[in-house]
């Protein structure tokens, strides 16, 4: 059901709710971050964050911090209360996604363009998440709901599951089409409750998997999605 619109100060590119769903952070094409009070539908704060468009936003678990990524090759850490920038992290290419660890506000995941995913600490230390194929740098990545694992997907349709502690592979599988051809992974998103997650792929099908089954299948597993969502009209 349509519930109205929010008149943003510029073109909205990305958005994210805080954990309680009371605040909505919107990243705009002019580099600003607009924070809306979703209960009153009014603007609570505007942060002049980046020079280039904001392409990803993530809230910390306690809602006190925001991470923003932009096509100016930077990731910034913001104080929501003051709007001040606590830290800036620079990367060699535009950053497509940034995500706070679900349980630890000091750690986060970064997905730069044409680069392996990077597991970072706010103090600047980092680890590169291993690749399945060194020639395939079109990587998407996400923490699972509890932050125990990192799931990565590549352009060849392969999804790898790594432990947080040692970045060791504990499970892997390929997303295939009906003809057994692989399809590029575009994004991986976990539900806030339960163990299900979505895989969006280049064949325009959203597949729903259960993380417990993925881990049980181990390496080179062949799990079946529990549901497929597809637009049959505009396929």
UniProtKB/TrEMBL annotation:
Pfam family, one: WD40
Segments annotated as WD repeats: 47-88
TM helices/strands, residue ranges: none
InterPro entries noted in UniProt: RBBP5/Swd1, WD40/YVTN_repeat-like_dom_sf, WD40_rpt
Keywords: Nucleus, Repeat, WD repeat
CC per GO annotation: Set1C/COMPASS complex
PROSITE patterns the UniProt entry points to: WD_REPEATS_2 (PS50082), WD_REPEATS_REGION (PS50294)
Protein name: Uncharacterized protein
Chief location of this protein within or outside the cell: nucleus
Localization annotation: Nucleus
Gene3D superfamilies reported in the protein's UniProt record: YVTN repeat-like/Quinoprotein amine dehydrogenase
